[in-house]
Amino acid sequence: MAWKHVVSEKKSNDASAASQSAPKDAIEPLADFDWTQTEPRRFRPFKPAYNITMALQSSTPSDLIVIDRTYLEGITERRRIIAENAATVLGAIPQGHGAVMETYTYLLGEYLPARYPTMFELRTSTDGSSTTFINKVTSAEFPLSPPPDDALAALRILAETVEDDMFLLVQQPDGTDSASAGEHMAVAFVCCHAGGFDPAEKLGKLLAAVHAPVPAYDKIGPSMERFFARADVGKSVKRINWAIQTHANMFAPTGNHVHAGDAAAVREAEPGDVDVAAARLRVELQTLSRLPRTRALLFSFKTYLYSLADVKAEGLGPQLAEAVDGLRKGNAPAMWVYKGGVRWGRAVCEHLRS
User: Fold this and answer.
1) Region annotation Disordered: residue ranges (predicted)?
2) Per-residue pLDDT tens digits for 83-112
3) What are the start-end ranges of the E strands in 138-225?
4) 3-state SS, residue 19
5) How far apart are alpha carbons 171 and 295 in whole angstroms?
6) Do 341 and 320 meet the contact criterion of CB atoms below 8 Å apart?
7) How far, in Å, CA of 105 to CA of 124, rounded?
8) In the predicted model, what is the mean pLDDT of residues 46-52?
9) pTM for this predicted structure
10) What is the DSSP string of 66-124?
């Protein structure tokens, strides 16, 4: 999909309104936060049988963005990914302009300086005509007021400021198309850590079409649409997703997944054919939040990679192996193919149990 540019009508009005109506939920400051001494969170969400469910947990506005000692390395890598793959990792359509600006203004103007004051701050010009966002870790400075003119520029700044990827979703109003009224459409994204999909191909699609390749999505699709419609400002939720990949790349738009039509051509790898030292447990910490002015949904996620050696060192090798086998035992057995188990499953499980 081509990199879609955003119509820039009413840019300054949108940004001003976003600033005035950004969420006012109390953000708990981490006054003495030292990102260099903060270990990445460790998630082990695997279970013996894989069942496709929403599996939502309550979250708080304060926990929207999580930062740890990998921050500078991660931001440096994201800059490289953007430089080489801009058309894949950044995108917006005109319907997403307001939501992008609201997200930009909230994160840079309120959330980050309040939550992480040791890392980010605001500087207002002496005449009060402009405000600049300062990243004290990277020394980068970005305009806050007035904000960037173009939504893609704003998305790029977000991508180079936090490690979380983001999709913005807007509910289609009644009276548009009887088939899509009330459904949510992906209207903008920044996604440097795609795992098995091309983010640009999701732009402008309804939620059901976005998830079309996912086996048994129909089991949760209607419930997800209803939940999204009811999601309220200040009532964030989170969930955790996991997979195995045979490499250590965060940016992996191809290769991680096996689609149903390709399964017949996939050969099961012999144990010696898989580099288990390079293989990783891939976990996404996903968060869903409602923006107050545009009413768009912000779906954000931070990706973690853990070596299989780390999992084994914790004594959890057999449990992860059981969960890999369990990809074909739950309510969506086609996950075994989709998540790639049909290709690397035997080799990885043998290693985890050794």
Assistant:
1) 1-25
2) 999 999 999 999 999 999 999 999 999 999
3) 141-145, 165-171, 184-190
4) helix
5) 8
6) no
7) 15
8) 95
9) 0.90
10) ---TTHHHHHHHHHHHHHHHHHHHEEE-GGGHHHHHHHHHHIIIIIHHHH-TTTEEEEE
